[in-house]
Write a structure and sequence with these properties.
The protein has 178 residues and is α/β, with parallel strands linked by helices. The chain has one domain. It is built from five helices and seven strands.
Length: 178
């Protein structure tokens, strides 16, 4: 996400969005979450460059929300769990405000334990697979809802191809706690 020279591209793109009165909503999707999130142990906080560029992006998005009155939604996937409210941290509460954000890393990878700060999130789940369903209103407001995928939802053809034992292993044991 927007590290190094890519940050200039992000800023230019955001400036175009801010200048366009037809744009009411900005959705930013990235691999690693911006720094100082609840998932900071596995996000852009791993390097000084990541922290610096990520905080600049966050500040730009916060300004777009607060001054240009754009709706801002931030999605990340690097941490293999689901979490709603990833920026509700002491750092962001004390440094400008909390953006709306999710981690949706539940597409099948090895699943991680939730960080201790999960209690500050609106919702958090690990050992689950699923996706985030977005419903966009004409006003530009977007509601996001986590849709869990259960073992019983796996199509029979997939189970036949990969065998029931493997499909079950993915749901029962593909995690840090097993």
């Amino acid at each position: 996400m927007c590290a190094g020279g890519a940050h200039d591209f992000c800023e230019k793109t955001l400036q175009l969005d801010l200048a366009n009165q037809q744009i009411h909503t900005i959705v930013v999707a990235m691999h690693e979450a911006l720094p100082n999130s609840i998932s900071e142990n596995h996000a852009m906080d791993q390097s000084p460059t990541g922290i610096e560029s990520g905080r600049r992006v966050y500040a730009d998005l916060l300004k777009a929300q607060n001054e240009a009155h754009k709706r801002i939604y931030v999605l990340a996937s690097h941490s293999h769990y689901f979490m709603d409210g990833i920026f509700n941290t002491q750092y962001w509460r004390e440094h400008g405000g909390v953006l709306t954000g999710w981690i949706i890393g539940t597409a099948g990878a090895f699943r991680y334990a939730l960080p201790p700060e999960k209690v500050d999130a609106k919702a958090a789940a690990t050992h689950v697979y699923g996706f985030l369903l977005a419903t966009v209103q004409p006003s530009g407001e977007i509601s996001f809802a986590f849709q869990q995928v259960n073992e019983s939802d796996v199509p029979a053809a997939v189970v036949e191809t990969y065998k029931p034992e493997f499909v079950h292993w993915c749901f029962a044991e593909n995690s840090a706690s097993h």
